[in-house]
Amino acid sequence: MGTTQLESVPEPKYWHLRTVLSEALDSEFSVGEILPNERDLAARFGVARATLRQALEQLELEGRLQRRRGVGTTVAPPRVGVAVGTEQHAWPSAADDAWQLADCTQAVPPAAVVTALETGADEPVHIVRRTRVSHGRPVAAELLYVPAASVPDLSAIDAPSGPARARAVLRELQRLELEGEDRAVELGSASAEDAKELDRLPGAPVLVVTTRFFAEGRTAALSVALYRADTCRLTFGDSGKVEIHHGPERQAS
Prior knowledge:
Blueprint: H1 13-28, H2 38-45, H3 49-61, E1 65-68, E2 72-75, E3 100-107, H4 111-117, E4 125-134, E5 137-146, H5 163-173, E6 180-189, H6 192-198, E7 205-215, E8 218-228, E9 234-236, E10 242-244
Antiparallel strand pairs: 1-2, 3-4, 4-5, 5-8, 6-7, 7-8, 9-10
Helix pairs in contact: 1-3, 2-3
């Protein structure tokens, strides 16, 4: 990567540096290659390390770079193409659902979830944890919040936690007639726990997909799924699916 003069450009320094770095990634680096350390890069481009970090963070957000725990900053592979959502009006764990059940516990959810579910402030709900792996690497983690009122017959299930309990919760949930759902996507950052599950560093950008499932005139379940922003690009198709594309011209099946 060659040096560049940033003082005279009208755009922010970090944005111009991001453009220069992006071009260098295309011409001088291969997928998985480790970038020089921040001190060397900052010296090479004549910028403050804070400016360099802004440029690197932007490239990570765009999926060009990955910060890997114990490795450093590497050139990211192309985004993988995986189907994120199911057809509308389908409960989680339908026949084509690619999520893997990990655990199920009972606990009082965060305040925002309590508000969405309209449960009591101290009322525990079933929390199903699921993960998604594509091409051998984790791409998403989900927490599905299910009020006890949505699965009234679950008391007959002996398993207090674990995948068996999760399967039972989803099986009982599917007994309800799904009336509809809505979905929202926003940008977030991974907590320490989320980052560990997604093989990212704390604070790494994630796409937060929140889905509310409606039955019997109320919110019967709430899904909060975190997708790696360096791996996934979400689009909404005419079918109501959420899809991930490899790139501008290549649509995931």
